[in-house]
Specification:
Elements (H helix, E strand, L loop, with lengths): L1 H37 L18 H5 L3 E2 L4 E6 L5 E12 L3 E11 L12 E4 L3 E8 L3 E6 L4 E5 L2 E4 L6 E9 L5 E8 L2 E7 L26 E9 L2 E9 L11
Length: about 250
């Protein structure tokens, strides 16, 4: 009888241990699923009041979903070539809708040249472009007016040592604007944008963007530090590059 009770006690203890392990694994899977889902979730803009003055921006942007950064990894194929895999965020919105992007900027403005006083007015605008390939190493882009958008505030006066600030961009996709847009944003930031599609439908070949060998651009007095979105979703799209040259450009 004592032996039977001992064995029964051991069996119950092991059952509890296995049950706790299963619960831990279940929570880990749920956590991972939640993280993946969060990158694809859509924060509705219905019922939100667009900020009318700069003091309302902070409250408005609390409803935003933060867009992740670029993730890059390198592997070698059977031929010994280094393959660079780049996971880039792509924005997704539907036609006949309006979405918003809350972009936080850091001012890099250190003041005018010695002997001068003053501040620097800096303008913000929403821009949209569509690109196509030229040969193996070229890319030509043109502005698109398929969507409409603007920035609020549209101008900020930069001063030395000023704190970070946020600009809200709105973008409207009318009926008939279904398509892939290679860059949606402003001078210092931009994301590929798909209109009228679901996240699961996107492929690297849908976009024409330079993935490596970026040319140096004109220095800007501001730097984007984060982007959160309202009324649209985002997801990672996988792009792959063989060793340069030529510069890696996605799309056909």
């Amino acid at each position: 009888m004592i032996t039977k009770n001992l064995l029964l006690g051991i069996f119950i203890t092991l059952t509890l241990i296995f049950a706790s392990l299963t619960l831990v694994e279940y929570e880990q899977v749920n956590t991972l699923s939640s993280q993946v889902h969060s990158s694809q979730s859509k924060t509705s803009s219905t019922g939100l009041s667009f900020p009318r003055n700069e003091s309302e921006i902070s409250q408005f942007c609390k409803f935003g979903s933060l867009v992740g950064g670029v993730v890059q990894q390198q592997t070698q194929n059977a031929s010994g070539q280094t393959i660079t895999t780049i996971f880039r965020p792509v924005l997704v919105m539907q036609t006949s809708s309006t979405a918003y992007a809350c972009v936080t900027y850091q001012s890099l403005y250190t003041g005018p040249a010695a002997g001068f006083q003053g501040a620097l007015p800096y303008t913000f605008n929403f821009g949209l472009s569509v690109c196509h390939r030229i040969g193996q190493a070229g890319l030509e882009c043109a502005l698109s007016h398929a969507l409409s958008g603007s920035a609020f505030p549209s101008q900020v006066t930069l001063r030395p040592s000023m704190s970070n600030f946020t600009v809200v961009y709105n973008v409207t996709a009318p009926a008939g604007s279904t398509g892939f847009y290679d860059s949606a944003g402003d001078t210092t930031w931009g994301y590929p944008l798909a209109v009228g599609y679901q996240n699961s439908q996107l492929n690297a070949s849908d976009f024409h963007i330079v993935l490596s060998g970026h040319p140096g651009g004109e220095a800007q007095p501001v730097r984007m530090t984060s982007v959160s979105i309202i009324g649209m979703s985002w997801t990672y799209v996988e792009f792959q590059c063989l060793p340069d040259p030529p510069p890696c450009i996605s799309g056909n």
